[in-house]
Design brief:
The protein is of the alpha+beta class and about 110 residues long. It has helices at about 10-20, 55-65, and strands spanning about 1-10, 30-35, 40-50, 65-70, 90-95, 95-100.
Length: about 110
Protein backbone atom coordinates (compact mmCIF):
# COMPACT_ATOMS: atom_id res chain seq x y z
CA UNK A 1 0.00 0.00 0.00
CA UNK A 2 1.14 3.55 -0.79
CA UNK A 3 0.19 7.01 0.42
CA UNK A 4 0.29 9.77 -2.17
CA UNK A 5 0.55 13.26 -0.70
CA UNK A 6 -0.23 15.72 -3.52
CA UNK A 7 0.00 19.49 -3.00
CA UNK A 8 -2.10 21.14 -5.69
CA UNK A 9 -2.71 24.82 -6.48
CA UNK A 10 -6.24 26.02 -5.61
CA UNK A 11 -7.03 26.75 -9.26
CA UNK A 12 -6.37 23.10 -10.16
CA UNK A 13 -7.88 21.33 -7.16
CA UNK A 14 -11.50 21.06 -8.39
CA UNK A 15 -10.54 19.57 -11.75
CA UNK A 16 -8.11 17.17 -10.05
CA UNK A 17 -10.65 16.13 -7.41
CA UNK A 18 -13.30 15.51 -10.08
CA UNK A 19 -10.90 13.40 -12.18
CA UNK A 20 -9.90 11.27 -9.18
CA UNK A 21 -13.53 10.74 -8.14
CA UNK A 22 -14.60 9.80 -11.69
CA UNK A 23 -11.81 7.18 -11.73
CA UNK A 24 -13.06 5.78 -8.41
CA UNK A 25 -10.27 6.97 -6.11
CA UNK A 26 -11.04 8.24 -2.61
CA UNK A 27 -8.97 10.91 -0.91
CA UNK A 28 -8.88 13.39 1.94
CA UNK A 29 -8.50 17.07 1.04
CA UNK A 30 -6.78 19.49 3.41
CA UNK A 31 -6.60 23.25 2.78
CA UNK A 32 -3.00 24.47 2.88
CA UNK A 33 -0.97 27.54 2.01
CA UNK A 34 2.26 27.82 0.03
CA UNK A 35 5.27 29.32 1.76
CA UNK A 36 6.71 31.55 -0.98
CA UNK A 37 3.65 33.29 -2.46
CA UNK A 38 1.34 32.45 0.46
CA UNK A 39 -1.39 31.39 -1.97
CA UNK A 40 -3.96 28.69 -1.36
CA UNK A 41 -3.30 25.05 -2.07
CA UNK A 42 -5.11 21.80 -1.48
CA UNK A 43 -3.20 18.86 -0.06
CA UNK A 44 -4.70 15.53 -1.11
CA UNK A 45 -4.00 12.38 0.89
CA UNK A 46 -4.65 9.38 -1.36
CA UNK A 47 -4.28 5.77 -0.26
CA UNK A 48 -3.59 3.40 -3.17
CA UNK A 49 -2.28 0.00 -4.08
CA UNK A 50 1.18 0.01 -5.66
CA UNK A 51 -0.19 -0.74 -9.14
CA UNK A 52 -2.57 2.26 -8.96
CA UNK A 53 0.10 4.88 -8.24
CA UNK A 54 0.99 5.59 -11.88
CA UNK A 55 -2.70 5.96 -12.82
CA UNK A 56 -3.28 8.45 -9.98
CA UNK A 57 -0.15 10.44 -10.78
CA UNK A 58 -1.24 10.54 -14.44
CA UNK A 59 -4.66 11.94 -13.47
CA UNK A 60 -2.99 14.60 -11.30
CA UNK A 61 -0.58 15.46 -14.10
CA UNK A 62 -3.41 15.84 -16.65
CA UNK A 63 -5.48 18.02 -14.30
CA UNK A 64 -2.79 20.47 -13.16
CA UNK A 65 -0.83 23.02 -15.11
CA UNK A 66 1.72 25.69 -14.32
CA UNK A 67 1.14 29.35 -15.11
CA UNK A 68 3.30 32.45 -15.10
CA UNK A 69 2.39 35.21 -12.70
CA UNK A 70 4.04 38.50 -11.76
CA UNK A 71 4.55 39.17 -8.05
CA UNK A 72 6.18 41.87 -6.00
CA UNK A 73 8.77 40.28 -3.75
CA UNK A 74 9.63 42.35 -0.70
CA UNK A 75 13.05 42.14 0.93
CA UNK A 76 13.25 40.02 4.09
CA UNK A 77 14.02 42.95 6.39
CA UNK A 78 11.16 45.14 7.55
CA UNK A 79 11.39 48.34 5.53
CA UNK A 80 8.97 51.20 6.24
CA UNK A 81 6.13 51.33 3.75
CA UNK A 82 6.80 53.59 0.79
CA UNK A 83 10.59 53.58 1.07
CA UNK A 84 11.24 50.58 -1.15
CA UNK A 85 9.90 50.18 -4.67
CA UNK A 86 9.74 46.64 -5.98
CA UNK A 87 9.90 45.45 -9.54
CA UNK A 88 7.49 42.66 -10.37
CA UNK A 89 9.16 39.28 -10.78
CA UNK A 90 7.78 36.59 -13.08
CA UNK A 91 7.33 33.24 -11.29
CA UNK A 92 5.69 29.95 -12.16
CA UNK A 93 2.66 29.00 -10.06
CA UNK A 94 0.27 26.11 -10.16
CA UNK A 95 0.89 22.53 -11.00
CA UNK A 96 1.35 19.90 -8.34
CA UNK A 97 3.95 18.27 -6.15
CA UNK A 98 3.40 14.62 -5.23
CA UNK A 99 5.15 12.44 -2.67
CA UNK A 100 4.66 8.66 -2.73
CA UNK A 101 5.28 7.02 0.63
CA UNK A 102 5.20 3.35 1.65
CA UNK A 103 2.47 2.54 4.18
CA UNK A 104 3.46 -0.01 6.79
CA UNK A 105 -0.07 -0.54 8.11
CA UNK A 106 -3.54 0.54 7.02
CA UNK A 107 -6.80 0.10 8.90
CA UNK A 108 -10.29 1.37 8.17
CA UNK A 109 -12.35 1.97 11.35
Amino acid sequence: MKLIVAVIHDRDQKQTSDALLRAGFKFTKIASTGGFLREGNATLLIGAEADEVDVILGLINESCRTREQYVNVLPPEATPVGTFLTNPVKVQVGGAIAFVVDVERFERM
